[in-house]
Structures are given as C-alpha cells and as structure tokens.
Amino acid sequence: MAPDLPPPVPEGMVRIHVFAGRFDSVESLEAYCFRSSDANHPEPLNNDLPGAFVDTDFVDAGFGPKRRDLIRRLMPEDMAAEVLARGAGTNAFVIVHEDAFNGLPYALGDTPRLAYLGAWEVPAT
C-alpha cells in the first residue's frame, strides 16, 4: 500500500515527527542521522525509513541532556512532558520536520535504532 499525504495542519501549527533511541555518543547519533557512506548512498536514517525520503536539512537531533532542551524548545510544556515520559530510558531524540518530505507522501515507523513516538502538531515558531 502506497503512503498517503497527511492531513493539513491547523493554521499557525506545524507537524513534527518524534523518534527516541539509544546511542553510544553524540557522534554515533549524528552519523546515523546525517552522514552517508558516500555520495551515492543515503544516510542510515533514510535507509531505515523505506516509506519516506527524509531531507536531513529538516532533521534535528539531541543527545544526552540536550535531548530535553530540543523537545522543550519545539513543544508546549504539556506535550514536552508527555514526549519526555514516552522517551524515558533513551538518550536521544530525533525530530523530523514535515518539510523534510518535500510535500511527498510518506509512511513512518520504528527503525532498528529509533522508536517512532508519532506525529505532533506544535505551534509554528
């Protein structure tokens, strides 16, 4: 089944997709999200999300204590608390902004390294 376009977001809001996982270091998190083995291959994050092509210019990653700062910067307090609770036991969050899909349909889910915590509509900043 082909992925569908998501429904539009309300005015003044944007959709972000939140993933949580465990990595050995900030370097291993950044390599997973942003580094490909060469110019002819995508980043591991893209390899692990076969239902979407993710433009990593629209991806944020936070490791260790900075993961909480990332969530709190993007979300209202009540949403941030819920995401932080759902990500308990992890040391990294990856945020994929809706713009990362360039208006194309997509399907997201868990990867071998990340649990998909879902799509969240947050105030545009």
Describe this structure in words.
This protein has 125 residues and is of the alpha+beta class. It has one domain (13-123). Helix content is 26%, strand content 24%. It is built from four helices and four strands. It has a four-stranded antiparallel beta sheet, sandwiched between helices. Helix 3 (65-74) packs antiparallel against helix 4 (77-86). The radius of gyration is 14 Å and the shape is globular. The mean pLDDT is 95.
Structure annotation, total helices: 4
- For the secondary structure, the number of strands is 4
What is the terminal separation in angstroms? 34 Å
Overall structural class, as computed from helix and strand content, comes to: alpha+beta
Helix content: 25-40%
Overall tally of domains? 1
Strand order of the largest sheet: 2-3-1-4
Q: Helices and strands, in N-to-C order?
A: EHHEHHEE
What is the approximate shape? globular
Mean pLDDT across all residues, rounded? 95
Radius of gyration: 14 Å
